[in-house]
Design goal:
The chain is α/β, with parallel strands linked by helices. The protein has three domains: about 70 residues, no CATH class; about 60 residues, no CATH class; about 170 residues, Rossmann fold (3-Layer(aba) Sandwich), CATH 3.40.50. The protein is built from ten helices and eleven strands. Helix 7 packs parallel to helix 8. The protein is elongated. It starts with a helix and ends with a helix.
Length: about 375
């Protein structure tokens, strides 16, 4: 029991350290590259829970070993290298689950719970068979288990006759399947990430998008088990890719944002009926669209397709010295008060946490 208590206490200490340095962990993205399934390894300074350690006898300790009263307890040794002015740092990697990280994110940013949309977002009750019991309804009696128990009784009591192997179960031999009712949410959700990969979107801009998408996924997975993700990249043309390609691709062409929105619409119409799915499109760009005409087409697609069909449409604009940033201004002008669209300006890594708060703070 004490080991479990120590482990829980250690977990609480780790969570406290992550909360203290949360902005650093988010902005640097240290933990994202250390994902293993549903766990994330986090590098922390060495943390030890105080405890007694016993060494073998006759190997020194309090009151043991060589030496005379009053003698110094050790002589300077011969070291190598020059003295430094900073303490050494000992790092240890500890694991936290995605749910635990989502809890820290929600607590730190005071995020509200998501209210899924759609009339099919209800819990269904399912029967889960969980074991064997000596009582139960006759319809769940297990013949094999009942026979085995009766056979054991015959053998142990000496009644079993191999030449006449007749086994007659009695009431105390009966075995039944046990079950419990479990609630399974019917809610289904998909996140569709779109990113401008034209020449003006450099590695730093894509790293910001990568960090944001990690935390967005962590929060949404807490509310939707089995969350699906899709990835679209675009310059003057759009295509669907896997996650690794999404964050590593670089192009040098122009930018037609509408190409991504059209492909996103096609994916939703083909695979995610809005009446059954909670849909979250996220688009990231430096805001440098090819023309005002294409921007007007994007506005029309948002108005006519996305806003009526998705939970919320989110656009994040990262700063680039090559991008004009005009697209964000155009969207702010077109959608000044519509809560179905969230617009966020991400000037640098230090603004990532504020942007996540903007995207997730409405609980949609």
């Amino acid at each position: 029991m004490s080991i479990r208590e120590d482990n829980n206490r250690f977990k609480d200490i780790v969570k406290g350290k992550v909360k203290e340095e949360f902005r650093k962990y988010v902005s640097q993205g240290e933990m994202i590259g250390k994902r293993e399934n549903e766990f994330v390894k986090i590098p922390l300074p060495q943390i030890d829970i105080p405890n007694f350690r016993y060494g073998p006898k006759q190997q020194g300790g309090v009151g043991q070993g060589e030496g005379e009263p009053g003698e110094a307890a050790g002589e300077p040794g011969e070291g190598q290298g020059q003295a430094g002015d900073q303490p050494g740092e000992h790092l240890v990697e500890v694991e936290l689950s995605m749910d635990e990280l989502a809890d820290i994110l929600g607590e730190k940013l005071e995020l509200p719970r998501i209210l899924p949309k759609g009339h099919k977002n209800i819990d269904t009750v399912k029967t889960k068979y969980s074991g064997i019991a000596p009582v139960g309804p006759e319809g769940l009696r297990q013949f094999r288990q009942t026979y085995k128990k009766a056979l054991r009784r015959y053998i142990t009591s000496g009644q079993y006759n191999p030449e006449d192997p007749v086994i007659v179960p009695i009431r105390r031999d009966f075995q039944y399947r046990t079950f419990k009712k479990v609630l399974q949410p019917q809610t289904k959700a998909v996140v569709i990430y779109m990113m401008d990969v034209s020449g003006s979107m450099g590695d730093e801009q894509k790293e910001i998008v990568r960090i944001e998408s990690f935390w967005i996924n962590a929060w949404l997975k807490k509310h939707y088990k089995g969350l699906e993700t899709r990835f679209i990249i675009h310059d003057a043309a759009a295509k669907e890719v896997d996650e690794n390609t999404f964050f590593r691709t670089s192009e040098s062409g122009g930018t037609l944002i509408s190409s991504a929105y059209k492909l996103c619409q096609q994916i939703i119409e083909a695979d995610y009926p809005p009446s059954q799915w909670n849909i979250y499109p996220y688009h990231f760009s430096d805001g440098d669209n090819w023309s005002g005409e294409d921007t007007r087409l994007c506005v029309r697609l948002i108005n006519e397709f996305f806003l009526p069909n998705v939970n919320v449409f989110s656009y994040g604009q990262v700063e680039s010295k090559y991008g004009s940033g005009q697209f964000l201004k155009d969207l702010q002008k077109e959608f000044p008060d519509d809560e179905r669209i969230i617009l966020s300006q991400i000037e640098n890594r230090d603004k990532i946490l504020d942007s996540i708060k903007e995207f997730l703070g409405k609980g949609k």
